[in-house]
Design brief:
566 residues; mainly beta; 4 domains; 48 strands
């Protein structure tokens, strides 16, 4: 029996990856840096991130027959990405590519020159561009919002919902380590006079826990009374990597009966921002760690919960003796970490919620709309902007519009308006809305002018201000002098930057013909590939580059260079 188990273990270990098995997109061993469903800012991770040994350029293969349903290049997000709709109805997505395959690169160039834009999103017709299983479609890279080279790989079901590829495929990762537990929290709930639970911000207290072994913890006895529930701070660790990953499933039991379950293996894109209601948002924003709530607020529509178990809130009554609350944390290989929390009832009513006394604080009833007029500014809040009724602090002091702080998640943007009537006409056009960050850093918020008002829709609470930017972007050509002969130059490199409002657009022309400039925002680098052969019939070439910032300042640069006709 023992020998048999050992053999099975060895076989499983050998099968950590199978080369070109047809359902794995790379031919290097699989080690993840992010798991499916992992907790991210404002969303759950919709795919898996496969490590590429810290470098770019590994071949990517389609996991099945199908057609290109979407091709895109964005400065942020997925960067260079291919979406394939497969003949079985599922889709796969490959993102942050360095390059597309030569065949796809040709399609991409044509789109870019037609649109006159480096970035684009294109949805080709069904079967217009067929892709066969195991076809090489591109090389791994680091484009878009990516901090290290890797392949972001997604699998989606027939309804375009992301599903965990690890659950449906033949390969598996090496993970024998049970989830890491960093903290267990509990929280008391108040009930209003209609019998509804009051979901105040945070209010969590940390429980003392004792480690029994690497996968079992026991908490100090919790003495409390009334309606309570729990939260955990936990992540998963896999073998051969230091990255912190997400859990696969959390179950909690009260006196042996399952009362809460969340499964991270499937969700849909229209619900993924509700992660802000699954975690305690205020703790996350203030202390930068995530308490995963083991209860469901009435306003939380996430489909990942097992709803028929109820809302996960339990009542501790005076007559109850000790009960045991039990949290089970699972990873994708079903490694388990467990916490036992003994609870005894005491006769005590906990503190009432914080009293609101400051005059800057306004109560927001979630089924009403609000307009607040402040100095040279106003705030407009529509119905159901928040998850539930709340109170926020607002004021306008020293030109800063304070709309509370980013500790309460929003379901909808809030409109803010700044009156700029008092400013000189010549500078009004160069003003923009900025969000003030830490240490007086600020970032551009997209806005529009309406006569004497500058209007922005803000997606997070915080401090906002009108800023003035009259300085045009800077442009510097790195490898070309005026009137130079550059017959062998393969790529033109241009450095651009803008100190205040940021780059809005960039365009280049050679002899009045638009050229494709590939932009790498983190390096501030524009690259033109001379293989694109724009105006290759002239020896004399007039290069022109035009950059605009978000406040409408424009910089232009013109240079003449010469190339042999080949
Ligand atoms: Zn990813």
């Amino acid at each position: 029996m023992r020998v048999g188990l050992f053999l099975i273990a060895v076989l499983i270990n050998l099968n950590i990856w199978s080369q070109n098995s047809g359902d794995y997109p790379l031919d290097i061993p699989i080690i993840l840096s992010s798991s499916f469903g992992e907790l991210r800012p404002n969303h759950f991770h919709a795919g898996i991130d496969i490590k590429t040994k810290g470098i770019e350029g590994f071949k990517i293969y389609s996991i099945g027959d199908g057609y290109i349903s979407r091709l895109q290049i964005t400065h942020g997000g997925n960067g260079k990405a291919i979406y394939i709709k497969h003949d079985n109805g599922q889709s796969s997505v490959y993102a942050h590519l360095q390059k597309f395959s030569p065949r796809i690169e040709k399609i991409v160039k044509e789109i870019q020159y037609t649109n006159q834009s480096y970035t684009f999103r294109k949805y080709p017709k069904k079967n217009e561009f067929r892709i066969s299983s195991k076809e090489m479609i591109g090389l791994t890279g680091n484009t878009g919002r990516s901090t290290a080279p890797h392949l972001h790989y997604e699998l989606r079901d027939e309804k375009d919902r992301p599903i965990n590829p690890m659950k449906f495929k033949s390969y598996s990762v090496n993970d024998t380590i049970s989830p890491i537990l960093l903290g267990v929290f509990y929280k008391n709930f108040r009930i209003d006079n209609k019998g509804a639970f009051q979901y105040d911000q945070s209010g969590f207290s940390k429980l003392k826990i004792k480690k029994i072994n690497s996968s079992l913890y026991i908490a100090d006895t919790l003495k409390t009374n009334g309606f309570i529930s729990f939260g955990v701070n936990s992540y998963d660790k896999m073998n051969n990597t230091q990255n912190k990953m997400g859990l696969s499933k959390i179950i909690s039991k009260n006196n042996g009966k399952i009362i809460f379950e969340i499964d991270f293996n499937k969700f849909s894109f229209d619900e993924w921002h509700h992660i802000n209601n699954f975690i305690d948002y205020s703790t996350y924003k203030k202390s930068n760690f995530r308490i995963q709530k083991l209860f469901i607020e009435d306003s939380n529509p996430l489909s990942m919960y097992k709803r028929d178990l109820g809302n996960g809130i339990i009542e501790i009554k005076n007559e109850d003796l000790t009960s045991i609350y039990n949290i089970k944390l699972y990873d994708y290989n079903d490694n388990l970490t467990e916490v036992l929390i003994p609870i005894t009832a005491i006769e005590k009513s906990y503190d009432e919620g914080k009293k609101i006394g400051l005059k800057d604080i306004v109560k927001i009833n979630n089924d009403s709309t609000y307009k607040f007029d402040l100095n040279n500014s106003s705030i407009h809040i529509s119905k159901n902007t928040f998850y539930h009724n709340t109170a926020i602090e607002i004021y306008n002091k020293e030109e800063i519009l304070h709309v509370d702080q980013d500790t309460i998640p929003l379901l909808k943007p809030i409109t803010i308006k700044f009156d700029v009537k008092r400013y000189n006409e010549s500078i009004k056009d160069r003003m923009f809305v900025a969000k003030i960050g830490k240490e007086n850093n600020y970032s551009f918020i997209s806005n529009k002018r309406d006569n004497d008002k500058i209007i922005a829709k803000i997606k997070t609470l915080g401090d906002y201000k009108i800023k003035l930017d009259t300085i045009p972007p800077s442009i510097k050509i790195l490898n070309l002098e005026d009137n130079q002969w550059v017959s062998d130059l393969k790529k033109l490199k241009v450095y651009i930057s803008d100190k205040s409002s940021g780059i809005k657009s960039y365009n280049g022309w050679i002899n009045d013909q638009w050229i494709l400039l590939e932009y790498n925002p983190s390096k501030g680098l524009l690259t033109y590939d001379f293989n694109d052969n724009i105006n290759s019939s002239n020896t004399r070439n007039d290069l022109s580059i035009k950059i605009e910032d978000n406040a409408g300042n424009i910089s232009e640069l013109n240079k003449v260079f010469y190339r042999e006709i080949k």
